């Protein structure tokens, strides 16, 4: 039963990490996309978690070209598809 | 994956948060890829999107009008939590009469309703997605 965690602010990450299972996905949206360019961000996650960031939110902040290669940019249509593929969406 | 039914729960206020704008992008993408938005529920600070008197500058996005347009084009229900709305001064004609007020400001296309409509949506839709402040 995999969850998709939707994170919209960096300060919510600590609480999200408490419930993030290795089979889950994490989607960074809004201001939380800033995590995608932070060196130590990925090391905090359980191994196996798929990490995505919204392309339009990365682009709005000038971060699209600085995003870690381990983080997959998502179009809005891919965001919808990922939300439906998971068993549930947990919004932080 | 096509033809799924979604409910969106918007808890963040327009302009103070990105919740209504992110949800609008999500809704447009969902509709464009063949899915159905059964209901959009405005809760907590999100109810202020239903204020028909908000007048953002003309060169900025008018989120209330954008949601009205999307709802009209795709038959999406715009449900507003009545308790959250009343305490924030968002009121329709019926509630204005009940409370003895001379004005009302609920924007066209929005309906004041109970929290039960969110629960009903969560129970019946394929997926509920919440947009927080």
UniProtKB/TrEMBL annotation, chain A:
Transmembrane segments: none annotated. Pfam families: DsrH. Signal peptide: none annotated. Gene3D superfamilies: DsrEFH-like. InterPro entries: DsrEFH-like (IPR027396), Sulphur_relay_TusB/DsrH (IPR007215). PANTHER family: PROTEIN TUSB (PTHR37526). NCBIfam families: sulf_tusB_dsrH. This is tRNA 2-thiouridine synthesizing protein B. It comes from Marinospirillum insulare.
Automatic annotation (TrEMBL), chain B:
It is found in: Cytoplasm. Coiled coil: none annotated. Keywords: Cytoplasm, Transferase. The keyword Protease does not apply. Its main location: cytoplasm. SUPFAM superfamilies: DsrEFH-like. Pfam families: DsrE. Belongs to the DsrE/TusD family. NCBIfam families: PRK00207.1, sulf_tusD_dsrE. This is Sulfurtransferase TusD. It comes from Marinospirillum insulare. The gene is tusD.
């Amino acid at each position: 039963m995999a969850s998709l965690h939707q994170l919209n602010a960096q300060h919510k990450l600590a609480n999200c990490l408490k419930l993030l299972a290795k089979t889950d996905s994490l989607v960074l949206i809004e201001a939380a996309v800033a995590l995608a360019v932070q060196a130590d961000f990925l090391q905090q996650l359980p191994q196996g978690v798929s990490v995505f960031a919204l392309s339009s939110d990365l682009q709005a902040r000038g971060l699209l070209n600085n995003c870690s290669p381990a983080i997959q940019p998502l179009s809005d249509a891919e965001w919808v598809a990922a939300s439906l593929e998971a068993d549930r969406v947990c919004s932080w | 994956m096509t033809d799924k039914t979604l409910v969106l729960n918007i808890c963040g206020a327009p302009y103070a948060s990105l919740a209504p704008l992110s949800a609008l992008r999500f809704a447009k993408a969902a509709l464009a890829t063949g899915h159905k938005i059964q209901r959009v529920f405005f809760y907590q600070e999100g109810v202020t999107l239903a204020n028909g008197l908000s007048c953002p500058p003309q060169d900025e996005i008018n989120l209330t009008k954008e949601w009205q347009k999307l709802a009209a084009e795709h038959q999406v229900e715009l449900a507003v939590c009545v308790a959250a709305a009343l305490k924030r001064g968002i009121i329709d004609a019926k509630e204005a009469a009940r409370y003895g007020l001379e004005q009302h400001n609920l924007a066209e296309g929005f309906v004041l309703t109970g929290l039960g409509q969110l629960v009903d949506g969560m129970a019946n839709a394929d997926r509920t997605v919440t947009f927080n402040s």
